[in-house]
Amino acid sequence: MDFKSLLKLSLISAFLCISNMSAATQAPAIVCDQTYALCTSAACIPDPNNSERTICDCAVMKGKSAGFTTCAQRKPFVDKYKAEHLISTFSFEQFAAKKSLTCPQGAPWSNCVDMPCTQDSQHPNHAICSCTVNNTQAFFTFGGECINSTCESGFWSGATQGTASDALRDALDIVEKNPAMPIACPANINNH
Asked: Phi, psi (5° rounding) for residue 22?
């Protein structure tokens, strides 16, 4: 493997390590080709009915994505009220368009991998997802537009290095052969 390939693999694995996964997620990530919710830059708010969860505004995408549940479990479905339900998974779709903001430990963030979502019938390119709240580790997000002060108030959908890193890295070549590389926010960004 050449240096460029090793560098690409190292950088991508660093950006894809999702924390707060249970030991059960040590299994390989599963790649599916279907409609899914993508929350890598999602703005979230605390769920008024459950302090352990957030409500996130995610993008609806079609194509290959990686997660830890089966394709059958992630298959979109329409309920009796004609609402479409999706699962939030991971893909590289926003890497080229968004920058990665790093936030400190203690700031609240949302873990949206394999979480339930409902497509917004008024805005079909959006899904509302129910994610879990975390604050025990530093994290990164593709939300926040590189404004550091949003780390404390954003509840952004985020990720950090954790036990799922190997499983996601193993799925990378299946998801996309040459993904765009994420760009980190400048260190001296002006806070608003």
From this structure: -80, 170
